[in-house]
Amino acid sequence: MKRDYYEILEISKTATTAEIKKAYRKQALKYHPDKNPGDKEAEENFKLAAEAYEVLSDENKRATYDRYGHAAFEGGMGGGGATMEDIFERFGDLFGGHFSGFSGFGGFGGFGGGQTQSYVKGDNLRIRVKVTLEEIVKGVEKKIKVRRKVKGEDTTYHTCPTCQGRGQTVQQMNTAFGVIQTATTCPKCGGAGEIIDKRGKDTDSQGMKTVEETIPINIPAGVMNGIQLKVANKGNEAPVKNSVPGDLLVVIEEEEHPTLKREGDNLHYDLYISFPDAVLGASKEIETVTGKVRIKLEEGIQSGKILRLRNKGVPSLQNHTTGDLIVHVNVWTPKNLTDKQKNFFKEMQNNENFNPKPDKCEKSFFEKVKEMFS
């Protein structure tokens, strides 16, 4: 089970943006690879701290996490194959001058003053996927056709002669305080360390070609409209040999249901009944996302009555609970009556049984609304 982001950064859920940044910097410096060479546990804690900071430092992501937990970011930065390069590219400026910067963790080189091997990550792709309410309740796997760029099979690359494969050029300046080295991105290869040698067949000027790929996307139960899922490494590849593909970002688009309205994890259903059914009571069949159910209406049921069917709503992304189906009873008043029917109601108009007599059990409109949201 994934650790809580607030726990990872050792902060409270009411922490300010400044406190979150300070806490992340503390954890990042504590577990930084320069201070813990070869320590896999420190490396994992370093990545977890970055994952937590990425979510909590963003106001929208933090609000989503507070409501839905880790499920809202399934396949996110920490769990989606994020590399040390990702972390240093995004948050390296937070470390200040304490470390020399990333130079290829895990087989790409060392830390400290060694030569830096840069990397290139391909562009992310973004698609919108429509899901029905039934699919949201059950969870679903969808297979989506995506057009993405990949390197041509016969495309070859060679080491950049300007930076000798390091991706950076270093300049030295003599100052009153000593020799200062400044590293900048190589202008020849753009930081890749490689340049194209020979283009493959049917490729563009960068040796890339577009292919169509069918990608399975697991959509967890309980997702909401606008939530973004990430499929790691299924975006465009980068036009260099040693590179990391971008990600496929999947934006959920919830289709409107014809009879059920969603509100968070709860569903709402408007049940219209006739005046005789309200007086005499009735048994009615209503639709839920898992099939039809039959409910019993007692005699003398009032318009505006709210019935709650437990666990007939939407599963929560944040925990293992399920919302309810809230049935709103509406007594329908006919507009066109025959003379006989009108005469009946005229006779009953002054009848004592037809005079409104709400008792203490009959809740007001505002009490019903309060009860519904409690």
Unreliable spans = 75-81, 96-118
* Relative helix content: 10-25%
- For the largest beta sheet, what order do the strands appear in spatially? 12-13-17-16
Biggest β-sheet description: 4 strands, mixed
What is the terminal separation in angstroms?
A: 30 Å
Question: Strand tally, please?
Answer: 17
Proportion of strand residues = 25-35%
The number of distinct helices, counting runs of at least 4 residues, comes to 9
Structure description:
Helices cover 23% and strands 29% of the residues. With 374 residues, the chain is of the alpha+beta class. The strands form seven sheets. Strands 12-13-17-16 form a four-stranded mixed sheet. It has a three-stranded mixed sheet with strand order 2-11-9. Strand 5 (168-175) and strand 6 (178-185) form a beta hairpin. The longest helix has 17 residues, at 40-56. It is elongated and about 105 Å long. The two termini are 30 Å apart.
Q: How is the topology of this model organized?
A:
Layout: H1 5-9, H2 17-31, H3 40-56, H4 59-68, H5 84-91, E1 120-121, E2 125-131, H6 133-138, E3 140-151, E4 156-159, E5 168-175, E6 178-185, E7 194-198, E8 208-219, E9 228-231, E10 243-244, E11 248-254, E12 260-263, E13 266-273, H7 275-280, E14 282-288, E15 291-297, E16 306-309, E17 325-331, H8 339-348, H9 365-373
Parallel strand pairs: 1-10, 2-11, 13-17
Antiparallel strand pairs: 3-8, 4-7, 5-6, 9-11, 12-13, 14-15, 16-17
Helix pairs in contact: 2-3
Keywords summarizing the entry:
3-stranded mixed sheet, 4-stranded mixed sheet, 374 residues, alpha+beta
